[in-house]
Amino acid sequence: MSREILDAMQALAREKGIDSEKLMIALEDALLSAYKKQPGSAKYARVEIDRETADFRVIELIVPERLEAHLMVETIDEETTIDPETGELREPEEPEINPRKFAEYRDQIDEQDVTPDDFGRIAAQTAKQVILQRIREAERDMMYEEYRDRVGELITGIVQQSDSRYTLVQLRERVEALLPKSEQVEGERYDHSQRIKAVIKEVSPSTKGPSIIVSRRDPELIKKLFELEVPEIADGLVEIANVAREPGYRSKIAVVSHADGVDPVGACVGPRGSRVRMVVSELRGEKIDIIPFNEEPARFVAKALSPARVREVLVDDDARQATVIVPDDQLSLAIGREGQNARLAARLTGWRVDIRSETEFAAEEAEHGYEEEEVSGRCAAILSNGRRCPNASLPGSRYCGLEAHQALAEISSDHVTALSDGAAAEAPAGAPAAGAPAASAAAPDDDPAADGDSATAAAAQPVAEMAEEAAEEQAS
Fold first, then answer.
1. Is the pLDDT of residue 266 over 90?
2. Which of 2, 65, 162, 374 has the fewest CB atoms within 10 Å, i.e. is most exposed?
């Protein structure tokens, strides 16, 4: 063999990005296949190529009969399979001993040089086909190794073909991915030569190269799109804690800041909404609510129900259930179309959400009374506007720390208006009790945060000056 062939193999390895040693091994296998096409070729042989001079030798392996029978039995046992139709053991028609097994018994095998003078045209064509096949296999292995660790990564591709079963997306030259119908967003169209973004869902090897499945429905797509548009997320200053998505309709994301002075919602929205607008555009108009994450379940649930205004939230930690009270005119908005808003809020927070209107909740409380086991530690006082005080009751008492509410224990009514002094110390809803944390998050009707866009809508607890004075007097 000439030195030119060796140089050509090295150039091919550089061009294809394949290890040159793999090509040399492929060339040895190709020459061995070509040798076996020759009449009178040895039954067992191997080919050795000098990596420096490109000289090759065909070496015949003279295997003793007993060793051959032993290796043949091992080969049959390894390749025996079960026929799927009959359930019987099926042996290969012409079993071939793996050349690696000969290396294990080299001391028992004699060798002799049987290098032919000329392979001939048919043998050369066989060598060419084997080399090309090995090159294709090496390329497939390289592509699989490249994409096997990229599951969940955002990719950009060009639509090549689309039908009722799947859409074919070209990622780069000779690398294509499948976007099956189950991973497509309902209502989206994928036209030829259109550029789309998706996340890699699954990578598996196959005979035609790596099978790459991409998705447009996966919630990870929203995370990756925001990471692409928001530098704070890419730098780790802001994190997307959770995503709840109904592809093509609406999504809610919970964001949290890990740096002082960085507003997570504002960072994701961007100047005049430019950042979130780019994400919405890529998702073909899918609405996105950006919710600030909160460790307190009541506040987090209230914010997750945006754009609806929430009056108060009662939480049951044991059952992980939140009862949300909203104004009567906000009930349909809080539930959403076909329950979509409530469903997404429950997925985002991980809590079961039960939404009640003020009128419905007040009627239930009036019907069942205010027994201590039913109020779950909440103050039993009824304010002048007819609503329950949202403060936590003091230990051993049905009322919070406000003097006016403690005075109700001496009369037979829970209404602060029944006090003889005209309820002078009455506290408005949401006033925090002295020495006890609030059991619910509440938002007033005139809360400007609740009237803003859905990304920043949240429930807040108002603190009245009268309640603060009463709490300070109680504490002194």
1. yes
2. 65
